[in-house]
Design a protein that fits this description.
The chain has 110 residues and is of the alpha/beta class. The chain contains 3 helices and 3 strands. It has 2 domains: 76 residues, NAD(P)-binding Rossmann-like Domain (Rossmann fold, 3-Layer(aba) Sandwich), CATH 3.40.50; 33 residues. A 3-stranded parallel beta sheet has the order 1-2-3.
Length: 110
């Protein structure tokens, strides 16, 4: 990877090795990081933790870098994404009720 590269992850938190990313940020091998997903996000995002101390040292370390932007998995809040989630869910409920094959088997694994 070219020194100073920018890494953006909006897919899945587990796609990147967060500890390796922190090391790359510290050595300036990685110039910038933007993440909309985090491997442990279910414990942190979508809750009001404004009165709490965040015990996730890895996330706290990431957020301490001035060249890192962390957002709370907002990518799925688009109109299109929510419509697709609704469509898949209703299609799978219909399949379950009528003993049909599911059209999107991975939707059940999440």
């Amino acid at each position: 990877m070219k020194k100073g590269a920018m890494l953006i992850n909006t897919s899945r938190g587990g796609l990147i090795d967060t500890h390796a990313v922190i090391e790359a940020l510290k050595t300036h091998q990685l110039g910038y990081l933007g993440i909309d997903v985090y491997e442990q996000e279910e414990k942190i995002f979508f809750k009001d933790l404004s009165e709490n101390i965040i015990a996730d040292d890895t996330l706290q370390r990431l957020m301490a870098f001035p060249n890192v932007l962390v957002t709370a998995h907002q990518a799925f809040f688009t109109k299109e994404a929510l419509e697709e989630i609704t469509h898949i869910t209703l299609t799978n409920v219909d399949a379950l009720l009528h003993h049909k094959n599911f059209t999107n088997q991975t939707a059940l694994l999440v």
